[in-house]
Amino acid sequence: MRIGITCYPTYGGSGIVATELGLELAQRGHDVHFISNANPIRLDSSLPGIHYHEVEVSNYPLFQYPPYTLALASRMFEVAACYKLDLVHVHYAIPHSIAALLAQQMTTKRRLPFITTLHGTDITLVGADRSYLPITRFSIEKSDGVTAVSTYLKERTQDVFGVTRPLEVIPNFVNCELYRPCVQGTRESAVLVHVSNFRPVKRVLDCIRILKHVRRHVPARLLMAGDGPERGAAEMLAEELDIAEHVTFLGKQDHVERLLPTADVLLLPSEMESFGLAALEAMACGVPPVATLGGGIGELVTHGQDGYLEEVGDVTSQAQRVIEILSDPVLHARLAAAARRTAETRFDSKRIIPLYERFYTEVCEGVRA
Ligand code: GMT
Question: Is pTM, for the whole model, over 0.85?
Fold first, then answer.
């Protein structure tokens, strides 16, 4: 098939999922055209079957806000026409879904179906903002197919927007050949890792507080991978709690598959995760997550079996779980093996990509609406 993919090209779960999906589809013989305002991170557009089309947004002084959605719709329309795309698949509803709807309406000579994949904050935060709610609901209703990355997100979408149209759950995936455990050498201290875009919803300050608790019982250090608005506050807190020398802020990382296997535990203390891709990537590397209850993460992590889930904000309980894991090598090995097994048996890209392929075929045949 010839597939157009639009996503946010920056660091963030939806862009990563879209990019990995495109790369996997290209490997399976599809022709994949990324349409975005920058080359998505993790995308090597020189690979066979991968194409990248940049969206230029003119910044005419009259425009207080450059009309990106219109530029994107125009580019989608052009790419769809020139490369005879069979469908357009947009990741993150706002504003990509509306741009795809415009491109579809501009394509008058044939049918150009589009699929919207809902990722999380497009529904839970941004989509539920009064100013975006009607247009997000409209674009969901007008999509030829809609997928959500968890059952939780599907149900939130139904509740928040009152949509009755079918929503398909296709969970996120991980390439278990790329993300895999590595043999640990002996170390002086245990390694905790956190990977995110450091937005308030991630509660990165809790990672620092957890480390403070943990270090009262076990020597440990914390690797903070990523960047974003809360990084400065996290750096300050590490100083205030007198543990700055045990926290390393790595900034944005292009190869988390090399970083994750070096850790013992992943911290994911988020306010809410519709799925929790960072947890899945860690699990594939045999790194058990200590994460928070609520959202869709319970569809991935089974408490006590392949990781732990505690209440949001309860840093004492989260730290206690970390201490348990780090103090008991047998427990750690059991959780690590189970985490890897979960990734392999339920979320490996080999299992999930065919679900997208089948969905594409059904949408193109008009079976889904
Ligand atoms: O809000 C973010 O953290 C970024 C966001 C995105 O769309 O880039 O992440 C969401 O999508 C990921 C991929 O599907 C999910 O794994 C994350 O759980 C989800 N984030 C939230 O729900 C907060």
Answer: yes
Residue 93: Cβ-neighbour burial (10 angstroms; 0-12, 13-18, 19+): buried
Of ligand 1's listed atoms, the one at least distance from the Cα of 295 is: 22
**CATH no., domain 190-346:** 3.40.50.2000
- Is the Cα torsion angle 258, 261, 267, 271 positive or negative in sign? positive
229-275 confidence digits (pLDDT tens): 999 999 999 999 999 999 999 999 989 999 999 999 999 999 999 99
Burial class of residue 51 in the structure, from the number of CB atoms within 10 Å of its CB (0-12 exposed, 13-18 middle, 19+ buried): middle
Domain spans, the chain:
2-173+348-364, 190-346
Q: Do domains 2-173+348-364 and 190-346 have the same CATH topology?
A: yes
- Binding pocket residue ranges, ligand 1, CB within 6 Å: 12-15, 17, 92, 119-121, 149, 172, 197, 199, 201, 272-277
Long-range contacts of 345-348 (CB under 8 A, 24+ apart): 346/171, 347/171, 347/172, 347/173, 347/174, 347/280, 347/284, 347/300, 348/173, 348/174, 348/175, 348/176
User: By three-state DSSP, how is residue 353 classified?
Assistant: helix
CATH architecture of 2-173+348-364: 3-Layer(aba) Sandwich (3.40)
